[in-house]
Amino acid sequence: MNDTEKPADTPSEEEDFGDPRTYDPDFKGPVSNRSCTDVLCCMIFLLCIVGYIVLGLVAWVHGDPRRAAYPTDSQGHFCGQKGTPNENKTILFYFNLLRCTSPSVLLNLQCPTTQICVSKCPEKFLTYVEMQLLYTKDKSHWEDYRQFCKNTAKPVKSLTQLLLDDDCPTAIFPSKPFLQRCFPDFSTKNGTLTIGSQIVFQDGNGGTRSVIELGAANGINKLLDAKSLGLKVFEDYATTWYWILIGLMIAMVLSWIFLILLRFIAGCLFWVFMIGVIGIIGYGIWHCYQQYTNLQEHPRSVLTVYDIGIQTNISMYFELQQTWFTLMIILCIIEVIVILMLIFLRNRIRVAIILLKEGSKAIGYVPSTLVYPALTFILLSICICYWVVTAVFLATSGVPVYKVIAPEGHCIHENQTCDPEIFNTTEIAKACPGALCNFAFYGGKSLYHQYIPTFHVYNLFVFLWLINFVIALGQCALAGAFATYYWAMKKPDDIPRYPLFTAFGRAIRYHTGSLAFGSLIIALIQMFKIVLEYLDHRLKRTENTLSKFLQCCLRCCFWCLENAIKFLNRNAYIMIAIYGRNFCRSAKDAFNLLMRNVLKVAVTDEVTYFVLFLGKILVAGSIGVLAFLFFTQRLPVIAQGPASLNYYWVPLLTVILGSYLIAHGFFSVYAMCVETIFICFLEDLERNDGSTARPYYVSQPLLKIFQEENLQTKQQ
C-alpha cells in the first residue's frame, strides 16, 4: 500500500460520514478504527485523580478518625481509647451543663465548662456541699462523688476554693448517656418536664434552678418525642428487615419480568401499565374516601392541620378528615391528568410502543447490559466511600488547639490560644479569675493546616467529577452496545461477540478525555449549585427580599441548565460511541441532528420516558399495595405479617422507595437503549433512502409508522 492509499475503514479527512448528504458504503455501525480524543482533558483528569490519591494519603497521615469517633475531654484526651487511662471511661461528663445553654456557645461552638471522661453517668441528685456533710459520717460518699471529679480533687475544699480550682462539679444530677455524653435524664410526669421526678433542684451554689432552665430550650418535649419516634422506627426496622429484603427481591424479579414481556407484548403490556396505574390511583381514592367517611363519626377528626400544629407523631395527621380529603383530591387530579394524556397522545404512543419493542429485542440480544448497573453501583460506591473517608481524615487533621474560656463571660482574653500545662502561671489566669484553658478543636499553623478548607473543596469537586464520569462511562458503553445491535443488517447474525465489553473497552481506551470533558461541565454546574446553597444557608436570616429572589432565580436557572446539559451530553456520548469523534464535535452533531428532527424528538422521546416511568410506578405501586396489605395484617392467606409494629408506614415506605430505585436501575438501561436506537434511526433516515444500494437498517414496523406520518403531513 502506497502513501496515498488508506484502509477502507478509515474515512478521509474530507469525508464527513455524519453529514446526512454523504453516503459511506463501508459504514456498518460503530467505527472500529479510532484515535484518542480530547487528550488534553484526559491528561488533566488523570492528574486530578493522582492529586486526589495524594490528598487522601496526606490526609491519612495527618488525620485521626478516632477524633470523630470518640468524645474529647478538656485536656484533649479521647474517652474510651484503648491503651490510655481513659480506656474504661467512654462517656464525656460536663461539670456545669447550665453553662452550655449560654448564647456564647452558638458563637464559639464550645461549652464553657470543664469536661472529663467517666465510666458512667450520675444516677442521683447530690451537691458538693451535701457530699461534704455525708462524708463526715460515711467516707464512701466521696468515692461515689469523686468519679465525676479530676484526679487532683479533695473532699475538704470550701465552695469558694472549689470554684477557683474547678476540680469537681458543684452538683450532679440524674443523667443518661446519649452520643457518648451525659445528658439530663428528662422525662414527663403529668405533662410536666422533670429530671428524676423532680421539677426544681439545687445547683450547688446555694441557688435553686428549674428543669426548664437546665433544658435551656422550650423544645425539650419535642426532642423527647423525636427520640421516642426514632427508637420506635428502629424497632420497626429490626422487626421487619427480612420482610423488606423479600419485598425488594420481588421488585427485582418483577422488573425482570416486565422487561422480558416488553419484547413480545409491548402494546398489551403498555395498556396493562395504564390500567394498573389508573387502578392503583383509583384504589387510593377509594381508600381515602373510606377513611374520610369512617372518621365522620369521631368528633376530634374535624380538627385541621393548623389546629394541631407540627407533631412528631405522624399518625395524628391520619386521624383528621382534612388529611384524607386532601389526599383524595390530589389523587383525583392525578387520575384526570393521566387519562387526558392517554387521549391526546395516543398517536405518539404507537411510536413509543414500537421503540419499546425494538429496545426489548436489543436487550434480548445483548442481555449483559442488564447487569451493567451493578458495575456502575460498585464504582459509585467506591467513589462515595473514598470521598467520605478523605473528608473525615481531613476534618480530623491537626494537633489539639486549646482556647481560653470564661464561664462568666467577662474576659478580654476569651477565645485566645493557650497552653493548659502553664496556663495557671500566665497573666491570663491572673487577669481573668475562673477562666479555663480547654480543648477547642484540632488544627495547626503549618502550610497543610492552612489549606485544609481548600482541600475540602478539592475533595468535593473531584468527587463530583468522578461520579459524573462513572455515569458518562456507563452511558457511552451502553450506547456503543445498542448501536452495534442497530447497525447490524442481519440480526443477530451480524452482531459481533461481546458488544458491551467491546464498547466499554473503546470508551476507556479512546474516549476517557471526551467523557471527562462532558462530566467536567456537569461537575462545575453542580459546584455552582452547592455554592448557591451555601450562600442561601448563610443568608437565611437576612430580610433582603431581593437577594432571596435572585437566589431562587439562580437556583432555578442552574437546575434547568444542568438537566439540559445532561440531555445533550447523553446524546453526545451516543455519537461518540458510534463515530469516535471528540466531545465538542459529537455534541454539535447530536445537537444538529436533534434540531433537524425536533418534533420527533420532543414528543417521541418524552412519551417513551413517560411509558418507562409508568413502568417504575407500577412496579413500586404493586409492591407497595402488597406490602400495605401484608404489614396491616390484611393478607393473612399468604403469610402472617409482623403484629408488633409501631408504625406500619416505616417498612411500607422503605419497600416502596427501594422497589422504585430497583426498577429505576433496570429501566435506566432500557431508556438508554431506546434513546440510542432512536438516534441511530434518525441517522439511518438521513444516511440512506431505502433503495437496494442504500437500504434502511431500521425495522419495518418503525419505518412504516414514520412513513405514514410523513404521508399525512404532506397531505395536510
Automatic annotation (TrEMBL):
The chain crosses the membrane at residues 39-61, 241-261, 268-286, 324-345, 365-389, 462-487, 607-631, 652-672. The gene is SLC44A5. Keywords: Antiport, Cell membrane, Glycoprotein, Membrane, Transmembrane, Transmembrane helix, Transport. It is a multi-pass membrane protein. Choline transporter. It catalyses: choline(out) + n H(+)(in) = choline(in) + n H(+)(out). This is Choline transporter-like protein. One of its GO terms (cellular component) is plasma membrane. Belongs to the CTL (choline transporter-like) family. InterPro entries: Choline_transptr-like. It comes from Theropithecus gelada (Gelada baboon).
